[in-house]
Batch of 2 targets.
Target 1
Amino acid sequence: MTLDVALNSINPPLPGSDIGTWMPSGGFLRLIETLPAQLCVIGTDGRFRYVNSTFAASTGWPQARIAGHTVAEVLGVAAARDFEAHGRRALTGETASFDGWVTDRTGHRRFLRRIAAPHLAAEGGKIDAYSMLIIDCTQDRTAEAALHLSEAVKTAAINNARDAIIAIDDQGIVIDYNPAAAHLFGYPRDQAIGRPIADLIIPPELRHNHALGLSRAVARERGHTLHRRLETQGLRADGSRVPVEVTLADVMVGERRLFIANLRDISESQFSTDQQTAMAYHDPVTGLGNRALLMRVVGEALTRRDPVLLVNIHIDRFSSIRSSFGHAFADDLLIGMAGRLAGDVLPGDHLVRIGDHVLALLLHGYRDDPMVLRRLDAIADILRSVVTPSGASVFLSASTGIVAATPQHETPEDLLRDAEIATSRARETGGSRVVWFDPSMHARVIDQVRTEHDLRHSLDLGVGLWVAYQPIVELVTERLAGFEALVRWNHPERGQIPPVHFVPIAEETGLVVTLGRWVLGVACRQLAHWQALRPPGMSDLFMSINLSPRQLDEPGFVDSVRAVIAETGIDPKCLKLELTESAVMRRPEDSIVILRELKSLGVSLSIDDFGTGYSSLSYLHKFPLDSIKVDRSFISALHLSEENRSIVRIIVDLARLLGFDVIAEGIESESDANLLRALACDYGQGYHYSRPQPPDQMERVLRGRAPWQR
Ligand code: C2E
Ligand code: MG
Ligand code: MG
């Protein structure tokens, strides 16, 4: 039932009836009485004929008293004017609806919908009254307003957002696009809407992934990217790329599911990340790249299977430069060197500093050795005349290892390891040279690691290691003068391992300090025992013990020698410590200090393998030495030529001049012994007299007659 029909179906007023007689009746009356809207009927005379209870309540009048009063009397003149204006339209036969804000009698603003409909009199169809239905819509109106407001706020937020906001449908078609998106990507809104987002802002190489991501988001499949932050690249209208952070959310708009992408331009934060990255990848002293950069670049090259060569350049003697001239000078030197070297690096190649005095050069695409060697010559030239920023010039050299990347190099560390192995080979062979890596070096390193491990184990458990003794004889009388203690290692699986194999490894790892201390203790105890066994009339025997350069560097070394002497009760002058030429010439000034300290204990000192190193005469006479031991290589060559004999003669004369005894090692024949006697050499040792022996066999020599004297 429409409102018009409803209103007209109210019982028409009886002809000639007064106001009070017109009344709706029955069920219909109950309906309109409980209506939450106001309803009234007003006659052409402007007086109320009927009001429902809701209407009466709004006026404050008792319902029964309103009929017969004018609108102005009940509602006041101002409200009546507005009311009657609508009523007049109804009296012309029109059903009219009016919406508007009205101030009620309590002073509240109310939004009213008023509908005025004419009443037709029974006879002649004349209009004699009108009904007014008044619905209070204030609440709905406020909610609607709030809705409008929140829409407005949202729109403003979207339009003013710093982030680009793009709504797409499940096919990836742009549905909406905010001004920030237009600004970021360079397409105006109207050009963007309706187009696939992939064509618009996704770089071609990422389109496949984008399509996959969208289909996952649509299906909410595993790995979908909804509500997650992603960093990717966006494509601008001008073809340039922009790093963006993207968050994707989905919303239901009616039946439709839309996807809202928030895209934030992160070029600035990337810039600061780039700066951090730059710091993380650079060496602060030289400004070159660092090890981390090398690892990254090598990693990329290995992934691409690029033909690369890694050159590891170890600057020789740099630690002595640092300790002798100080850190500031050493750093200056590095800066000067890096500047010159960097100027020589070709585009695409990388020069980095990976250790205090270790540089690495990654060369791309080189395969033919002459080309590489030419580049390395250029580096060596630069090192030969490094000038610090403050103008000091220094001659440097480098031990260089090179390795070419192969499929066996799975990680950058693999490649660097091999370059370092080649470098240590270059260093072992005297430095200032270039060594190419070869896979057999690997086996050697593995052997070294194993040897070190096993040796440590043997030392810890005190098994497998023992000391052999080789007699040293007075050449003129051929009587026993002393012994040289030579360490032996009986490996549980590998059998006898010669000291030339394991001593250098122990030296490199520092284990030689423990090993040397052990040998010193064992040999001194042995000497004490043998001194006591000596037949009456036999002069003092001495014990020669080999020292490694590492032992000299050990802070408590002199004290440990003093303690062994005290513990075993040997006469210190019977203890002879042997040092190689190269060991004392490493840092001659330091050596003088430590040798004097040792000398102050009363022990004897000897230079071993004399003639193989580079003894400086100026130092030789400053060292508090007692003897020199001529290297075996000279002795074995004695019988070959007069020239060789002259060399030994000169060494013996020199030793005499400096007041040292001379010992010849490696005497293998009677003729060697005779020649050395003729050259006035004091002592000798060698297979001709005896091989190094276990202590019990040596004891037999001691108790009886020496076999060489029979
Ligand atoms: P070294 O001190 O020059 O010892 C002499 C080496 O020559 C010994 O080799 C000895 O066995 C060998 N030899 C002796 N007479 C002859 C001979 O007539 N002909 C030949 N061909 N060789 C002879 P070994 O025992 O193998 O020791 C080698 C090196 O190992 C030693 O050379 C020494 O430098 C080192 N070494 C041995 N024991 C120790 C130790 O306890 N501590 C340290 N630091 N080094 C040790
Ligand atoms: Mg020796
Ligand atoms: Mg020797």
Note: The pocket of magnesium ion (ligand 3) is lined by residues 608-609, 629, 665 (CB under 6 Å).
Target 2
Amino acid sequence: MAEVETTRDGDVMTITLNRPDVLNAFDRAMQDGFRAALKEAADPEVRAVVLTGAGRGFCVGQDLTEFQEGAGDIGERLRSTYNRNVLSLRSLEKPVIGAVNGPAAGAGLALAAACDIRIAADSAVFVPAFITIGLVPDTGASYLLARLLGYGRAFEWLASGKQLTAADAHAWGFVSEVVEAGKLAERAGLVAGELGSLPTRAIGMTKRLLDRAGSGTLEEQLELEAQLQAAAAGSEDFAEGIAAFLEKRDPRFTGR
Ligand code: T3D
């Protein structure tokens, strides 16, 4: 059985991290499988992606048994695995839904944070985990959590390592909804299907705008908006959106 599985339902692709016995902790093979799955997800025919875990875990980050022989060059390993993969995930020009089915810890928590939307099973827990073993946040956790939660909450969480329940994570705004565990896959598929039927290129560009927001001046952001709006206005989906409005009918967007 592959350590990362991909399935398609129409234009929605689901990536399932698949080492359930260790709550989908990352070993090297799972990193490689994840990289291949993210490459597949970049296919323009895929218009929404769901990221989830097999079994009772979402992903608990690095497989700690690999540290038994010593840590090695962690910086280099991060650059060649986690960093590349989280950048590929964030670069997808389509909505990515994290279907957090169980514990999300360490780099697994960072991957959840890198998704555009998180839906949690009521059985999910969220654990920074880095500080608990004497490490600092990686895989973008410091950047992503500070942006999603603000400095105060990000510091409180990352510096304490405290475990949040799904309800806590919802109250903090980290997840957008909490559903019964048995209904998570269906709900995530529904949300992905809805987002996947919208103008995909415009969603991709909306992600770029939000990623850049706050890192430059208002003038710079206005200029980027103008550039991307010009690109959006050249899309088939813009023509369809206008036609559907004028003809008083529902639009049929194709993602082109
Ligand atoms: O160079 C680099 O790669 C550096 C990169 C670092 C990035 C990181 O991700 S650092 C953070 C690594 N992750 C952790 O420290 C999390 C460790 N896990 C936990 O704290 C707990 O498992 C949880 C709180 C997340 C969940 O607890 P619980 O009680 O629901 O499950 P459990 O019983 O602890 O775990 C179930 C099994 O998974 C268990 O194995 P067993 O006893 O049934 O044979 C456990 O050992 C295994 N497991 C859980 N996390 C990991 C793991 N095995 C390897 N690595 C793990 N990270």
Note: The mean pLDDT is 97.
